[in-house]
From TrEMBL:
Pfam families: Hydrolase. Its cofactor is Mg(2+). One of its GO terms (molecular function) is phosphatidylglycerophosphatase activity. InterPro entries: HAD-like_hydrolase, HAD-like_sf, HAD-SF_hydro_IA, HAD-SF_hydro_IIIA, HAD_sf, PGPP1/Gep4. Keywords: Hydrolase, Magnesium. One of its GO terms (biological process) is small molecule metabolic process. This is YqeG family HAD IIIA-type phosphatase. SUPFAM superfamilies: HAD-like.
Length: 169
């Protein structure tokens, strides 16, 4: 029942993911959520984010930011993050934003991963688009009220996800 919301894998942070390993496994594009995935909500790109995007581009991995935020927020972050491609008003969890991101990067679902912090928008949208999803823990506890409410429901899904993950081991 909840499996439609399960990520393909999870990590403590976007900064803990082995992108080198993903590259060796054929990944050529990474789609990122911004808020609470790369930086706290509404924060500008920090040095850690800038270094991550530089590292990815040096590896030969294309990047695209996919956000439900407005253009000024997403465009400013993209510029600061080394000129990453971006999509604002992405309408997540709709799959069109994910498909558009792959088109911008010149990749397909097999060679793309998505990294985000929310199950019902980020992960669910990636799954609908056929993209491998990596769920990361939110960077900061301060969030908008509608997200806070979704976190309670996410906790239920994550309980079953972690239980099922333990059973597989």
């Amino acid at each position: 029942m909840f499996k439609v919301f399960y990520p393909d894998e999870d990590a403590a942070s976007a900064y803990d993911i082995s992108f080198e390993k993903l590259y060796k496994n054929g990944i050529r594009g990474v789609i990122f959520d911004i808020d609470n995935t790369l930086v706290p909500h509404d924060a500008p790109a920090d040095e850690r984010a800038k270094k991550l995007f530089l590292r990815l581009h040096e590896l030969g991995i294309e990047t695209c930011l996919l956000s439900n935020n407005k253009e000024p927020r997403v465009a400013a972050f993209a510029r600061a993050a080394g000129g990453s491609r971006y999509i604002y008003n992405g309408n997540k969890p709709g799959k069109k934003g994910y498909q558009r991101a792959m088109k911008l990067m010149g990749t397909d679902a097999k060679h793309t991963v998505f990294v985000g912090d929310q199950l019902f928008t980020d992960v669910y949208g990636a799954k609908r688009a056929g993209i491998h999803s990596i769920l990361v823990k939110p960077i900061h506890p301060k969030e908008e009220i509608q997200i806070v409410l979704k976190r309670y429901l996410e906790a239920v899904v994550l309980y079953f996800y972690r239980r099922d993950k333990k059973r597989k081991k």
